[in-house]
Amino acid sequence: MSDALPITAADVKVPEVNVPDAALPKAGNRALKKFLASKAAIFGGLVVLVFVAVAILAPLIATDDPLKTSFLTIRKAPSLANYFGTDELGRDIFSRMAFGARASLLAGVVSVAIAVIVGVPLGILAGFFGGWTDMAISRVADALLSIPFLILAIALAAFLGPSLTNAMIAIGFSQTPIFIRLARAQTLSVKSEDYVEGAEAIGLPNRWILIRYVFPNILPPLIVQATLTIATAIIAEASLSFLGLGQQPPDPSWGSMLNTAKNYMGQAPWMSIFPGIAIFLLVLGFNLLGDGLRDALDPRQS
């Protein structure tokens, strides 16, 4: 009877388990067609683009220096010389609104970026690992969510001190719990999918699974939430500036312009009308854009 030959590791063939590429979100034409078919979403996107263009081109389209005062043109009504009239110091309101758009858009985008950068990783960790990690992160998020958003933002801004930068930080951290909860819920849903379980079964590192398979599949609802949250952040920045906790005079801000205009509602109503309309339109634009993205990216929508 002959001796059996030894079996080496090279002779053993382990069946390869592939995680399907279908696990990764594919940017198909269907979502784009659904988005373009929504007139409301297109209108919202155009409104946002107009305000972005105004903010970028403010030095070119401004009819005057937004900080220049003139006692000869105090509270002048709208005219060809001053499209939106002048304020209590004779400053051109159109020019101040054009530069003020920068503060509103910057506050909206930066504050939401802070909330996403801080909240999404924490939410993913809570949903993926569970246990004490989930409990600790979720309890902190729940505690912050129990405080009204604007009250929390005002408290943080007052603690940090009045400035646009501090206002953006305050708004961002006040919105962080929203993204923690959303990222956690989406991660729990994706975690139970076959492709994630398959990746865990073949021993892929957790970091690779989170980056390769979890994060891309929770991205669409995060994009929608971020777009809608920008609208909330713009209102919050205007509120903080109105209270003197945001952009500081003499730099223009729509909120601070409304604060000044409240004393001249009868004599110069245009001082409050135009900043109010601008805030309304920009917030409406982001809301319509977010609704359109939600309908286009949500697979449950027909």
TrEMBL record:
Domain ABC transmembrane type-1 residue range list: 101-290
Compartment(s) of residence: Cell membrane
Keywords for the protein's UniProt record, in alphabetical order: Cell membrane, Membrane, Transmembrane, Transmembrane helix, Transport
Alphabetized InterPro entries for the sequence: BP-dependent_transpt_permease, MetI-like, MetI-like_sf, OppC_N
GO process terms (BP): transmembrane transport
Protein's UniProt keywords contain 4Fe-4S: no
Bilayer topology: Multi-pass membrane protein
Entry annotated with the keyword Cell membrane: yes
GO cellular component: plasma membrane
Transmembrane segments: 40-62, 105-128, 140-160, 222-247, 267-290
Protein name: ABC transmembrane type-1 domain-containing protein
Natural source organism: marine sediment metagenome
Lineage: unclassified sequences, metagenomes, ecological metagenomes
